[in-house]
Amino acid sequence: MLIDGLSLWQVALVALILQLTLGPLLGALVGWVGGHLVERSAQRGWMNPIFQRMSAMSLEVLAFAFAEMVQGNGSIAAFVAGLVFSVQTVYAAKRVPV
Predict the structure, then answer these.
(1) Which of 23, 36, 41, 47 is the most exposed place for a label (fewest CB within 10 A)?
(2) Is residue 92 within 8 Å of residue 38, measured between CB atoms?
(3) Cα–Cα distance between 55 and 92 in angstroms, integer?
(4) By residue range, what is the domain housing residue 90?
(5) What is the full per-residue pLDDT of the chain (98 aa) written as tens digits?
(6) What distance in Å separates the CA atoms of residue 57 and residue 19, rounded to the nearest whole number?
């Protein structure tokens, strides 16, 4: 990702900005959309509690992969996706024992 005309520290700064912005943004997007879908499925009885728990892990892996594809930080994306997912799924969280 070397850009002509930029020095090494400028390229490093651009990479850092991409890592710290794209990771959380994609993680929040995946967590929100996934949480919304799981919540709707749980309310309508389309999803068992076991699959609700499995969907949380799947969404974190998906957020990690999406962030890494666009040069974002996958670890931050997975963390943020888990946070947003847990806030989004109020109804499903009541049905799933911890």
Answers:
(1) 36
(2) yes
(3) 11
(4) 23-95
(5) 456 677 778 888 888 888 888 999 999 999 999 999 988 988 898 988 888 888 888 999 999 999 999 988 999 999 999 889 888 777 766 665 54
(6) 22
**Which pLDDT belongs to residue 79?**
94
Q: Evaluate whether residue 32 is within a structural domain.
A: yes
- Residue pair 73/28 in contact (Cβ under 8 Å)? The answer is no
16 in a structural domain: no
Residue 2 lies in a domain: no
Q: Which residues contact 43 (CB under 8 A, 6 or more apart)?
A: 91
If one counts every other C-beta atom within 10 angstroms of the C-beta of residue 29, the result is 16
Total number of domains constituting the chain? 1
Q: Are 82 and 29 in contact (CB under 8 A)?
A: no
